[in-house]
Amino acid sequence: MPKNSAGKLIAITGLPASGKTTLINGLKAALGRACFVSQPPKEWQRDPRVQALLEGRQAPGFTEEDEIDLSISLRYRQQQREILPCLERGVDVVVHRYLCCLLAYYYATGSIPLAAIEAKAQSILKPDVSLYLDIPAACSIQRTLSRQKPFFAHQVDPQFIGRMRAGYLKLGERNGAFVLDGTLPGEWILEAALEVLWVQGVLIGEGVKDSSPANEGPPVVRDELGRIPLHL
Predict the structure, then answer these.
(1) pLDDT classification of 43: cutoffs 50, 70, 90
(2) How many CA atoms lie within 13 A of 120 on its CB side?
């Protein structure tokens, strides 16, 4: 679903423990203006049926398609209640995980065609900018284990996480996401992300270069994996 509003919608996605929260906190501090951070709907996270599916257990009367429908419906409600009002007021919204996360998960499971999920999600806003933090599967698993927090079995399954990474990269290429190297230090990643936002016209104002055609920023050059190198 396209949007037409003054604020910008920025989606942050990536594998488990790829640094999404760190980047979001950095962006919120660095933007230095009105910025709202939208977290994944808590109702989805706390739903025992969803938890059962994520843990590989059966949820009687609740299928994967039901889980997808629930996730999209909660996202849509969140969109109407908090995201759109912010955008209409000119407030930029940074979304922690987004539809791409759901798609990458089901790309990894291979159980439901992505086209079927995308058809269900046509009412969900398309981000102005999508930033994907790319890390190898082994790095994601190592970080997840080192956190000493609860995790799902699929989050430390090398094959599953590898397929998720492949899904993210495929979706990112198709949808124009900017792929950042999540193995680099957080401050470097933040600077690269801010560069992307500047080039894409999100950062406009005093001390920030205008994004008009007559005053374009430098081209964004990617490496062999499509990641954006840092200009430091």
Answers:
(1) confident
(2) 19
